[in-house]
Design a protein that fits this description.
Elements (H helix, E strand, L loop, with lengths): L8 H19 L6 H10 L18 H22 L13 H4 L2 H9 L9 E9 L5 E9 L9 H10 L6 H8 L12 H13 L1 H17 L5 H5 L5 H5 L2
Helix pairs in contact: 3-5, 3-9, 5-7, 5-9, 7-9, 8-9
The protein binds fe (ii) ion (2 copies).
The site of one fe (ii) ion has 4 residues, from loops.
């Protein structure tokens, strides 16, 4: 399943660069099934997909870039927890942080949290109003959920499992609940209880939720210096912390 994509040569070159880094980070985990996942992501257009239809990174390559931003934020948050102390008691913030938040689990659960967005965005020409008030045609996106309509976080877990990826329970819970309460049907007490229980299961769940929110809400905004500097910085240097 893959929709045709129109890209500029710059976008194409940038996606190729992002893909090399993304694949390298996942292969380095040595995780069972990762090759099959990488093949399937390529086959279904993950790398050319946007991160959203009209909000953050709504352009070809936006999804892989967003995934890398979430990874970067999670690594930064882990390092902050590692370096930090309780201001009152002076105790370390977390004991055994590398056991609670293994690096491989951070790679798997951040880079793959949004694979559910593969093959839902369909490029189309849309009427857009320019700042000077003139209407023009520009490439935009429509949404099509007809392929594998399993939901959002749960869909990512189902897709990865179907493709043969071996994941820990913490990783599956972190991917399943990465949207935190934003994706909850509020009439369902069951879902709310599951979300709360998942958060008590491992700090990885909260870490991925925070990293996802900070990537979209800080790194991918117009006022972020990161967004502007990304255009000139070497990707490998930017993301390999
Ligand atoms: Fe998501
Ligand atoms: Fe996300």
């Amino acid at each position: 399943m893959q929709y045709p994509v129109t890209m500029t040569p710059e976008q194409e070159a940038r996606i190729a660069q992002l893909k090399v880094w993304f694949e390298k980070a996942l292969r380095n985990t040595g995780r069972e099934g990762i090759e099959q996942v990488l093949n399937k992501l390529d086959e279904h257009g993950f790398y050319t997909a946007p991160a959203s239809s009209s909000f953050h990174l709504n352009e070809p390559g936006g999804l892989v870039l967003h995934s890398m931003h979430v990874f970067q934020m999670a690594k930064l948050l882990k390092q902050t927890l590692k370096d930090g102390h309780n201001m009152i008691t002076k105790e370390p913030l977390l004991q055994d942080i590398d056991v609670l938040l293994p690096d491989d689990s951070i790679v798997i659960s951040t880079l793959l949290h949004d694979v559910c967005k593969t093959a839902i965005y369909v490029q189309t020409m849309k009427r857009q109003k320019l700042p000077n008030g003139v209407w023009t045609d520009a490439l935009g996106y429509n949404l099509d959920y007809s392929w594998a309509p399993f939901g959002h976080g749960e869909k990512s877990v189902i897709m990865l499992q179907n493709w043969g990826l071996r994941m820990t329970e913490d990783e599956m819970l972190a991917i399943r609940w990465h949207m935190a309460a934003w994706d909850l049907p509020f009439q369902s007490a069951d879902e709310k209880s599951n979300l709360n229980a998942a958060k008590e299961h491992s700090p990885l769940i909260t870490l991925v939720q925070m990293a996802d929110g900070m990537a979209a809400g800080i790194m991918e905004t117009d006022w972020s210096a990161t967004a502007a500097s990304l255009k000139t910085m070497d990707e490998e240097e930017r993301f390999l912390l």
